[in-house]
Structures are given as structure tokens and as C-alpha cells.
Amino acid sequence: MDTSNPAVFVNGGLMCIYVGRRIRTVMQVIQSDGGGVTGKSTDGHQLVVKGPQPGFPLTTFVEIIGIADTDRSIRAEIWNNFGNTFDTQSYNQLCQLANGEFKHLFI
Predict the structure, then answer these.
(1) Which residue, 26, 30, 10, is CA-closest to 70?
(2) Which pLDDT band holds residue 21 (cuts at 50, 70, 90)?
């Protein structure tokens, strides 16, 4: 595992803490066009993902790893399909743990 450039687990509400840094998040795809992908974070915030889109069709839920340009936009580096169903509540709990009392367990 490459630990030289870690990506912090975030949801929409936590992105403002990591603007300019590498993050990873999961979102529900709402719209995809040539200008980017618009989606809803697991905690209900609207997100815009810019940058090269993957060469495969997106599922309903995707993970994006990239740089948080603003508190609502990401410059994508890596896309991962997470299927058409996803437990958003558990992901939000993971984000809280990864940014809270158990932060030391996450890179």
C-alpha cells in the first residue's frame, strides 16, 4: 500500500476541512456530462467532480479519489464504481471515525 500520498475519508460536510488536499469520498451520481459529474454526497450535499472521467460507465454510487478544489468540488484522479446500492449511513459513520477520535488508525 502506498502511504506517501494518503487520501482522507470525507463526506460532503467534512470537505471544507480538506480543501487543497487529497480526499476520498462516495457519492450518488445525479448527472454526468462533458463538463463533469454532479452528485449527492452520502450526507446529502451536492458535489461536482471535474477532471477526466473514467473510460467505463458509472454505477449509481461511485468513489472518487482526488483533490478537494472547494468545499463542494473535487478534481478527480481515480474513480471506482461502488454499485447501485450503498449504505450511506455506515459510510458517514466511517468518515466521523476517520476524522475524530480514531483518526490515528487511518492514514
Answers:
(1) 10
(2) very high
